[in-house]
Amino acid sequence: MEDAFRPSTDLDDPPNSRLFLVTSKSITEDVIRENFTMFGEIQDVWVVKDKQTKESKGVSFVKFAKSSEACAAMEEMHGKCLVEGTKPIKVFIAQARSSGSHKDVEDEELTRIFVMIPKTFTEEDLKETFKVYGDIEYCIVVKNKSTGESKGLGYVRFHKPSHAATAIEKCDKTFRAILAEPRNKTPAPENDYFNNARPDHTMNDPGISAYPFADAGNYPRADMRGSDIITRCLMVSSRASVTQEQIYSLFDLIPGMDYCEMQQDSYGFSTGHTMIRYNNLGSAVYAKNKLDGFEYPPGNRLVVTHIDDGEDRRSPVGRMAMQLVAAQMMSIVCNPAGPQLRKTSTVYPSPAVPQCPRIQTDVALPPPQKLAPSDSRAKERLFVVFKPSPLPMDVLEDVFCRFGSLIEVFLVPGRNVGYMKYAERKSAEDAMATLHGQMINGVKMKVMLADPPKEESHKRQRTY
DNA sequence: CGACGGGACGC
DNA sequence: CGACGGGACGC
């Protein structure tokens, strides 16, 4: 599944996932590998050597699957001595091959993220939402200077690059989190759209899954924060317009809800984010398990995540207690007919909810796969025409992800067409081969390779 | 035939 | 000071 080597694209993908090491010339690839495996999935280690003498130049590159892994390794290993008597190593995030620059990448550029937020989000809301990924230095909501009204944009500055990277990788994708451009910098020339000249670059990156509980193997991480937290508070995110009352009714099916408020924009429209709190941990865990991924209204898949509620999770005792409760709840939720562990006294009423989008088709579909990380480069896109009308986004995501490396579904507003972005060419080709001319839920699809997006010559706007 | 989105500023 | 290899083939 994972090829050891691939033709080099001159890009680092995902961004900031490669380390630049300065070491004694005696440090070998094996030593580097031994010292860095614990931080994540190493995809490549390369010690730069003199072409003639084969002697190390004291410079190496270590490519990780994820930026958060590379950052954690950098934070932990910079200044460490790998072999007795050798000089301490220096560890930096490597400059992208295409950048041409050899300047050190500074923490300044790696610790501030830029996010889209509901218009009602305050800086405190921002902090509450993102502090689960690490210590925050400050949060900023971008506001209209004269009216003071939020523009629905925010910045979060973390203390550590690994925390910013983890936030980008793990926060709800409706935030569209990316690294913020440093304020003074001219927008990086950064590479153009997608590069269709090259074969695939296999990443096998467990990205943000659209499928609850699909996360299986995780790599050891430097810390255990992130979305592993378990709290009484939930954030419910919806792409389609829903009312607070609708969300309330749904989540009130589970006993113990004591708070439910939808974030609204200045016109009173729903922003798709609703905060919910239960008076006990078990109900919150149950609600997340039952309703994360639930289609409501049909065709719109809700995303439910725990958010930090300020309770002390650092104390080992508190954390263990919560995990215990969570584990009990899990066993009840996951084994409804379950054997010994079942305690009848704690069984909750089950909302009558289908779990996945119903897909009706004659096509033999492979099982769903994880989405590629949203910062993956699109190596191929499909252009899809629907008759008589487009399928819902989440159905499309469910169908088109099954060939691997799907980054994103984009429906052109007001038209019966859309685009599927893939991080690997083969995935797109497989999807096209299987789905072209087929019928899904009564909708006929033409599935073709998309023409490259129109060349806006040398505009800087990146497609994130 | 059926074609292209979203998002930039305070310590 | 300390920056960029190896090998590539299926549709």
Automatic annotation (TrEMBL):
One of its GO terms (molecular function) is RNA binding. Pfam families: RRM_1. SMART domains: RRM. Keywords: RNA-binding. The lineage of its organism: Eukaryota, Metazoa, Chordata, Craniata, Vertebrata. InterPro entries: Nucleotide-bd_a/b_plait_sf (IPR012677), RBD_domain_sf (IPR035979), RBM45_RRM1 (IPR034203), RBM45_RRM2 (IPR034206), RBM45_RRM3 (IPR034207), RBM45_RRM4 (IPR034208), RRM_dom (IPR000504), SLIRP/GR-RBP-like (IPR052462). It comes from Umbra pygmaea. Residues 17-96, 111-185, 380-452 form the RRM domain. This is RRM domain-containing protein. It comes from the Eukaryota.
